[in-house]
Amino acid sequence: MNEQQKKRISKFLSLILRHQPKTINLTLDENGWANVDELREKCSKRNINFTLEELDEVVETNDKKRFIFNEDKTQIRANQGHSIDIDLALKPQQPPEFLYHGTAQTNIDSILEKGIEKRNRQHVHLSQDKETATKVGMRHGKPVILTIRTGKMFEDGILFYLSENKVWLTDFVAAKYISNNKG
Fold first, then answer.
1. What does UniProt give as the signal peptide span (predicted)?
2. Are 104 and 173 members of one domain?
3. What pTM, to 2 d.p., does this model score?
């Protein structure tokens, strides 16, 4: 399978497993898991065809590790980024002292005034390193990397979760915890 095919399948899986399973009448359980055979069958009706081996390749080679299988690979789900209501069954964890959030320059004034909101997602996403945050910010325009004082947030009683693919999640980041390190 070539890179273009993998990208097409990955993008479609993101849409279906994170946002719109109803597009193909796919049923996700309360934790976001989909039956792999049902997924393949319903995708094929939309002319998105892939073997189990190809699906495994998409999951394993995805640079953002967006998807995960259960142990016997009969179920699959997105690791985070859902706009639909599911319970990833994540346990609260203590974050590092600082995490990073990548965004576009056009969002900075609003963020520094109102904080970082989850909007249509279940959580705000934070990165462990500036490189990852930069890649996220680049998707939306000229990237700006914000430093988040997550240690202080945690001290103040704010909950954090770590997804399977190592993205830190929280419900909201108030402006008082955000630093805009220009340059």
1. none
2. yes
3. 0.79
Note the residue count of the chain: 183
Question: Which two structure tokens, joined as six digits, stand for 152?
Answer: 């202080």
Last residue of a domain, one of 13, 46, 78: 78
Closest CA to 88 of 161, 11, 166, 10: 161
- Say whether both 115 and 176 belong to one domain: yes
Sequence letter at residue 95: P
Largest Cα–Cα distance of the chain, in whole Å? 50
Contact in structure between 138 and 75 (CB atoms under 8 Å) = no
Contacts for 89 with CB less than 8 Å, ≥ 6 apart:
31
The pLDDT value recorded for residue 183 is: 38
- Give the tens place of pLDDT for each residue, 93-142: 999 999 999 999 999 999 999 999 998 888 999 999 999 999 989 988 89
How do beta strands 143-148 and 99-104 pair?
Answer: antiparallel
Domain identity same for 111 and 164: yes
CATH number at residue 63: 1.10.10.970
**Which pLDDT tens digit goes with each residue over 129-182?**
999 999 989 988 899 999 999 999 999 999 999 998 899 999 999 999 999 875
